[in-house]
Amino acid sequence: MHAMKKIKSLLFLGLFMMTSCLDILDKEPLDIISDNAVWNDPVLIDSYLAECYYQTSVMVNETPGYFTNGGNFWQSELGMGMCWINEIADEAKVNWAYNTDAVRTYKAGGLTIGGGLLEWWELPYNTIRALNEFIQRVPGSPVAEELKNERVAEARFLRAYNYFAMVKRYGGVPLITVPQALDESWEELYPSRNSEQEVYDFILAEMDDIINNEYLYETVGDDNLGRPTKYAALALKSRAALYAGSIAQFGKVQMNGLLGIPSSLAEHYYRESYKASKEIGKKHSLYDVNADKVTNFKNIFLVKNNCEVILARRHNDSPTSINSGDYSGGHSWGYDFAQCPKPQAWGAGNKDAPYLEMVEAFEHIDGTSGALDRTQIQQGLWTTNELWANKDPRFFATIYTQNTAWKGAMVDYHNGLRLPDGTIQNDGSYQGVLALGTQSVDNGFGTGFGVMKYLDESNNTLQFPGISSTDYLVFRYGEILLNLAEAAFELGETGEALEAVNDIRRRAGISPLESIDRDKIRHERKVELAFEGHRYWDVRRWRIAVDVLSKPNCGLRYILDYETGKYQLQILDNVDGTGTSPNFYEHNYYFPITLSRTGNNPNLQENPGYQN
Question: Which residue, 65, 158, 217, 382, shows the most beta carbons closer than 10 Å to its own?
């Protein structure tokens, strides 16, 4: 173990010649806005910090390193990345993409020493440099003491979040906590990695300090929308400590502690997660307003600042007009635009195509399995009501499929027309009935399913790529209750774990469980948090990804029967396609540091399994 290093960021780890994209710092020459002016003006201080929020796009997009500006969908901070994280898990097939091959290569186990899809290194260290400067300079500012404390606490929260995003990818990384001058020593300019445990401990200690000193807001109001509160700091602690506990319990220590956490510390981290989750429950609660359970679950993500929302990426309620050419009222090329069914501006949508296995994970209301009898359903003809009746209401709020109501019509995935003589027509029409439905994307129908979560049917902005007013949730209480359940179970508090899971199930509108075990907790997490960016990281921290992410997945083909209006069904085996079946290898539990970074800094050790 070694102490946290100080570092001069301009020469750090391959960041040679990398310039900041922070607007305040880019206003050259300095006689326009001097260095002192920034730290003496509360407006400029807030502008500086706002750019750091923007740079921490990893809070809502797990592949931000792939994109450089917000002008296009595949470059947006709130766009394709939140689709890709679903597609590399066992949740969905990539239906279309700017760079489909990158997703498929990664999913097939093609992560190499050159890096890949979810890189998060250069940008966070650049942002951390700016945050370190902010944390050091603002306390000396002449602005109000309360404002200084609040803003520094926010900066520390952002810095910790950046480190959390790194440690869950790479294991131990260099911890940089202060800005540095040009004349630092070799060891400080080219630091080695801290241990994985040290990084997690730093994150938890930072959250404890800003929570205990009450530097952050207690509640969200009109004057601090989108800023982290005390409970957002507790939520980061809840999540990070749970990850650390899982790694200690299920992982192994490697590279003298650079990777892994001693198993003896699992209980400690679970206890920290448990305590943080309990504290959040004193302020936040499950959203349970609408009698209709489908509507209620949808509204968790659509009703702004509701009781379940702990931290959200905020967007204005009233985006500017499509015709004005000014889209600053919302966000461009967002997640909801990508996922919605037709009608959609690109004639596409349906970016993620959920697997049949993900669909089957949703139980029936009475708690019985949602798995289909795949032999039976491929015999005879079926209505969609016969297929999906009595499913968990979260299914209808999370997934759309054949005959899902949307904007006054029905989503139409039918792929083929069964004629009166029993033959299948695959193009054209018969007696005025089209052989193919309208929900085709790139001449295909994906898996027969799409993602409904976050979609607002009343929002016309889904018909245009430029604007959307939907917030994106960073932390919500549903996750925290599941964190509590998992931590409580691993601590032996099975009664409390069962109660927490059943709170989630009762809100959803399905039968409570009578007993609890680890698999039931994980199953509930898969369903409740589907398509929110958790699943991929969960199966990695539980160390079950080698099994879970190395299986072929299926889709469902609906063939419309001309005479009855029912559907003949076909299971689409290995729907990802030949040669692109998922594969996850043991060494993929950690990303490569990459050849370029270790080449620029000889003190960085590469992770096991990645050879030149």
Answer: 158
- Integer Cα distance of 611 and 440 in angstroms: 41
**Element spanning 200, H or E:** helix 196-212
Report the alpha-carbon angle 500-503-507, nearest 5. Answer: 150
Please state, in angstroms and rounded to a whole number, the distance separating the CA atoms of residues 286 and 484: 14
Polymer length in residues for the chain: 612
Residue-level pLDDT at 80: 63
Helices (H), 470-604: 477-490, 494-508, 518-528, 535-541, 545-548, 595-600
Residue 80, C-beta contacts closer than 8 angstroms, at least 6 positions apart = 63, 67, 73, 74, 97, 98, 338, 351
The Cα 8–Cα 160 span in angstroms is: 19
Q: Which of 134, 244, 148, 231 is nearest to 179 (CA)?
A: 134
pLDDT tops 50 at residue 16: no
The tens digit of pLDDT for each residue in 199-233 reads 999 999 999 999 999 999 888 777 777 899 999 99
The CA distance from 414 to 438, in Å, is 8
Helices within 23-79 (DSSP H only): 23-26, 35-40, 42-55
Number of alpha helices (DSSP H) and beta strands (DSSP E) in the chain: 23, 14
Nearest CA to 13 out of 258, 185, 172, 189 is that of: 189
pLDDT in tens, 392-435: 999 999 999 999 999 899 999 999 999 999 999 999 999 999 99
Q: What is the pLDDT of residue 29?
A: 46
Euclidean distance between CA atoms 216 and 152, whole angstroms? 9
- Half-sphere exposure at residue 30, Cβ-oriented, CA atoms within 13 angstroms: 6
Residue type, 458: S
Alpha-carbon distance 78 to 168, whole Å? 20
DSSP 81-124: HHHHHHHTTTSEEE---TTHHHHHHHHTT--BTTB-TT--SHHH
Distance CA 488, CA 495 (A): 8
Distance CA 300, CA 481 (A): 15
- Enumerate domains of the chain plus CATH numbers: 195-314+471-543 (1.25.40.390)
Q: Per-residue b/e over 481-493, b at no fewer than 16 CB within 10 Å?
A: bbbbbbbbbbbeb
Helix (H, G, I), strand (E, B) or coil at 596: helix
Nearest to 483 by CA among 270, 201, 331: 270
- Look at the block and give the residue holding tokens 């766009």: 79
Res. 372: pLDDT tops 90: yes
Among residues 149, 151, 159, 165, which one has the least CA distance to residue 179? 159
Distance of CA 505 to the CA centre of its chain: 22
Alpha-carbon distance values, 181 to 123, 135, 140, 188 (Å)? 20, 16, 18, 10
Q: What are the tokens at 314?
A: 């905020």
Q: Which two tokens stand for residue 233?
A: 């700091």
Token couple for 464:
């245009």
Q: How many angstroms separate the CA atoms of 393 and 510, rounded?
A: 8
Q: What is the 3-state secondary structure (H, E, C) of 292-333?
A: CHHHHHHHCCCCCCCCCEEEEECCCCCCCCHHHCCCCCCCCC
For 557, the token pair is 């083909």
Instruction: Provide the H-helix boundaries in 412-452.
Output: none
Encoded tokens for 169: 């990818």
List the structure tokens of 87.
């597609």
Tokens of 110: 């093609």
**How far apart (Å, rounded) are the C-alpha atoms in residues 275 and 271?**
6
